[in-house]
Structures are given as C-alpha cells and as structure tokens.
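Narrative summary of target 7.
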Amino acid sequence: MIHIENKLQFLRELRDWKQQDVAKALGVSRSTYANYESGRRAPDLSILMNLADIYGISLDELTGHKVKQSNSLQLTNQALRLLKSFNQLPLHTQEWYIAHMAFDVKEKTYALGMQPVTVAEKMDIKK
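Modeled conformation, tokenized:
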C-alpha cells in the first residue's frame, strides 16, 4: 500500500483548499477523499494520476518513489549516436552486425582479424 496521506494533506493545505475542493476535482465524495488523507483508504492508480495532475507534480513525486541508480542505464553521446544509426539499418544488416560484434567480443579481436580501418576499406566505406 502506498502511504501518501501526509503528502495529500500537505499539498491541499499548501494551496489553501478544502477536502471538498479536491474531492470535486477528482469526482469522488468528500468522505472518500478524507479517507485517502487519513490513510483509511488507498487511492487507485487513476486517482493517483488525477491527483498528480491537479497538483502539477509527477506520480513519482506524489508517491515518493525514487528510481534506484543501479537500475538505470546511462548511455554516452557516442553510444546514442551509434544506436540511432543502427536503428536506421535494415533488420538483416542489424543481425549481421550483431553476429559480428558478438564474435569480436568473444574472440577479443576484430572480425576477420582486421583492424577497423581495413574493415572499412574492404566494405568501401568513405570517410
């Protein structure tokens, strides 16, 4: 259960609103909203989304949810450019590159034993 009762009361009082004002905006009775603030009842996701909209904050801010850094993936600008270019390739070409990259990583060598410049020349890639 998400415990946001103190946050709900704080946000409402910060705006000098009554429980009835927020309840009306949510389309629920004042007693239902009072139960949210007292912790006797937990708002469902649609109510949480409406509350976030009413107060102009994110769901994360409303619920106090914080994303763990270990779960987030940080890409460099170079990696983002590579992904953008890669996604523009036809699927069969993407699969070819994936297979060769997997081989290169496993063997810790470049495909066909060539340096990148040699590979580019063999593929007739212009600088």
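The first helix runs from residue 5 to 14.
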